[in-house]
Amino acid sequence: MQVIHLSVECFPIAKVGGLADVVGALPKYQRELGVDAAVIMPYFNRKFVQENSFERVAQGQFYQGSALLSYELLKEKDDKLGFPLYLLKIPGLLDREEVYCYPDEADQWIAFQHAVLHYLNSLEQLPDILHCHDHHVGLIPFLTKYSNDYKRLAEIRTVFTVHNGQYQGWMNWNKGILLPAFDTWRWGLMDWDGLINPLATAIKCCEAYTTVSEGYLSELYAEANGLQALFSDERAKAHGIVNGIDSAYWDPEKDSLIIENYGLANVDTGKLANKKMLCAQYELDPSLPLLSFIGRFATEKGADILDQLIEKLLQGEQAVQVFILGSGDAGIQQQIAALLPRFKGRLAAYFGYNEGLAHQVYAASDLLIMPSRVEPCGLNQLYALKYGTIPVVRGIGGLKDTVIDVTADGYGFVFADVDAQEAAATVQRALAYIDNPQQLDHIRDKAMELDFSWHKSAQKYIDLYNQLVR
């Protein structure tokens, strides 16, 4: 079986969020299970691309509106990621450094999808499955069925994964002229509330859609930024499959990005060595428990309550220190930065994206806080568990599916609402629990023995592919 994953993010080429981690790992594990899986993504002029060798395997031209666009498809020569990686390069549109935030994003993603169709149409042997990830490629399930020039692609089965239903790729209908010619009687399949909605289009037209956890699927039926009725109407083709983690890359016993490797047998000394190094670098105290936040400064991540949470914890009676690693909303960053001089020696922060530092923080921390309003799956809590760092999370989406509170014989701490007072109380409950060495050993051992690797989830996707092909 041949499967092509379509995405605008893939680690380590271009990463903004968890989408990149999924697309950078799932195809590798599928190949280990016997599936011919590959990735096609836009070309980004970034470090991985600059440092590795690519060869051109295809080229072509197509009209986007009145503009004649040329593309070339580049393949990474050595399959260093464990699967074939293809980059689509279009001068002026798909040859940039950043992934998002350009004013012509709609034009970029339309061009990417059109170039994919043009390339696929040139193949003698079509893939069995196109696995489309998020709204950026949400028009593919429609265009493979109803575009005039690509009718032979209709035999390909399409799977669409919703990584975050809040972002839907809305565009005005004046962008319709940029699409490849299609059966205009079918225009309603792309429409939602008077706009082209790629996410809605994909849900209507794909053979199956998946969400990145079972909990998130049930939540989409109740709230999906206006699409909850559609998700509910199409539930017969819905599947909740929780994300996994790349256990070869996220492994404290082999991780080259941390100071000292460790496993179950030496988790205490290993984490302490990593904590000492991090604390020395950021002027913190290695004798105190360390609570960390890693992620985007966004309201959907609950980052807007971090400043209140920090104040409540650091002014409280329990000894604790806090490390923040993230970027995003400038206002949230300013709120955190304003606290740094007040709590010098107990609060430190790194503002920006730093993959290596993230590994060090997971290895050094005792607790990880995730106060998310929306969390389709969440990967940070899975990384934390692998590194013996206990997650403190809001019970929502994938967090609810993957973190069980210690009161239910679990391995984490869960709270109900995005509220600084409730989050602080739960952190304090966690601090009191892990203050007992016997309890800490028990919960760490349980956390690190959990298997959230991609093997199980990759097989579930393969089972779904087989069902569709049959």
TrEMBL record:
Catalysed reactions, semicolon-separated: [(1->4)-alpha-D-glucosyl](n) + ADP-alpha-D-glucose = [(1->4)-alpha-D-glucosyl](n+1) + ADP + H(+)
Molecular function in Gene Ontology: alpha-1,4-glucan glucosyltransferase (ADP-glucose donor) activity; alpha-1,4-glucan glucosyltransferase (UDP-glucose donor) activity
Domain of life: Bacteria
Gene3D superfamilies named in the record: Glycogen Phosphorylase B
Pfam families listed in its UniProt record: Glyco_transf_5, Glycos_transf_1
GO biological process, alphabetically ordered: glycogen biosynthetic process
Residue ranges of domain Starch synthase catalytic in the record: 2-230
Enzyme class, first EC level, given as a word: transferase
InterPro entries: Glyco_trans_1, GS/SS, Starch_synth_cat_dom
Enzyme Commission number(s) of this protein: 2.4.1.21
Pathway as given in its UniProt record: Glycan biosynthesis; glycogen biosynthesis
Keyword Kinase among record annotations: no
Binding locations of ADP-alpha-D-glucose: K15
Record CDD domains: GT5_Glycogen_synthase_DULL1-like (cd03791)
Record family assignment: Belongs to the glycosyltransferase 1 family. Bacterial/plant glycogen synthase subfamily.
Function statement: Synthesizes alpha-1,4-glucan chains using ADP-glucose.
The name this protein goes by in its record: Glycogen synthase
The encoding gene: glgA
